[in-house]
Amino acid sequence: MKKTKNNSGKIIRAAFCVAFYATIAILLLAGCKKEKSADLVIWTYDSFNSEWGPGPDISKVFEEKTGIKITWVSHGDAGEIVSRLIQDGDSSNADIILGVDQNLAVRIVNSGLLEAYRPKGAERILKELVIDDDFRLTPFDYSYFAIVYDSQSYDRESYDRESYDSDATNPPKSLEDLTLPQFKQKLILIDPRTSSPGLGFFAWVKEVYGDGWQDYWRRLKPSILTIADGWSSAYGLFTRGEAPMVLSYTTSPGYHLEYEETERYKAAIFSDGHAMQIEAAGLVKTAKNKNNAKRFLDFMISPDFQNIIPLTNWMYTVIDIPLPASFRINPKSDKPLLPGAVSEADLNEWSALMVNAGQNR
């Protein structure tokens, strides 16, 4: 009996050991599998990772070259990305934030949440586009804000001829022109509190009008049909014919030529000059996949990444490479502007001024 009892004990202990180590192995494999599914987490804005944006192509090429899979997390617009990262702080699951522009740079850099990393090949970036010498933010594309208009919507019957004695097909030629009576409720703008293009337009106005920016917005108010939350919703309203003018980019006309074979949509060039937008990406200091994130930032300024940008994000590249033929109709201003940062106090004042301006959608 004693011998039988001992053998039973050994069998039980052996079975326990097998079960224990099998459980550990399963947990380890599950952990590895979970880690593999999140090789790199990038926060970006909605349109970047849409089916027509750069995200899908970038994921494919980057994984082919490195074996690293990207998990994209969309947060509306760039302003929302910055607000969310600051809110989450060290608990964020982001490895990289992508799509922050120079108007948001001060806020995110001062938060201390980004780590400096100078990507390989950074010397190829056009010098005027470097917005942070320490490379807490690395530029990946740029363009110029502009009022894009539908040339086919400009017919003489659409305007009050007594208030507009010139050819009705003429677009506005300055920021001040946007305040003219013939443009009443003809303009779609974007909220500077939630959108980087909206913030860029605000900074553009402030750069041109200085201390008189509040009076300009009061004059502009009747021209505004609506103030959208983000670029995608604003441009969607525009292309559906809600209004003949929208805040966008000088590079927008090329999109319509490339995919719709039309030159109907044009960017108005203003005598005031045009504010530049430089988009950048930054390495989050608490990134869980930091080595993979650095490899992505290296890739971001390579020709493989940069060649994707023009026909998907409709912006200019930050390194010198040939552009698509459709970019020929994108106008250029001979007066590029790089406005200063906008304060929270300015935005609060703007919000009070713009009560009941258009229909906020």
What's the arrangement of secondary structure elements?
Blueprint: H1 2-37, E1 40-44, H2 55-66, E2 70-74, H3 78-88, E3 96-101, H4 102-110, E4 114-115, E5 138-150, E6 187-190, H5 196-209, H6 213-220, E7 224-228, H7 231-239, E8 245-249, H8 252-260, E9 265-268, E10 274-284, H9 290-300, H10 303-306, E11 316-317, E12 336-337, H11 344-353
Parallel strand pairs: 1-2, 1-3, 6-7, 6-8, 10-12
Antiparallel strand pairs: 3-10, 4-10, 5-8, 5-9, 5-10, 5-11
Describe this structure in words.
The chain is an alpha/beta fold. The chain has 2 domains: 40-142 and 279-318, D-Maltodextrin-Binding Protein, domain 2 (3-Layer(aba) Sandwich); 144-276 and 331-353, 3-Layer(aba) Sandwich (D-Maltodextrin-Binding Protein, domain 2), CATH 3.40.190. The chain is 37% helix and 18% strand. Strands 1, 2, 3, 4, 5, 6, 7, 8, 9, 10, 11 and 12 form a 12-stranded mixed sheet that branches. It is globular and about 55 Å long. The model is unreliable at 1-12, 14-18, 24-29, 31-37 and 155-168 (pLDDT under 50).
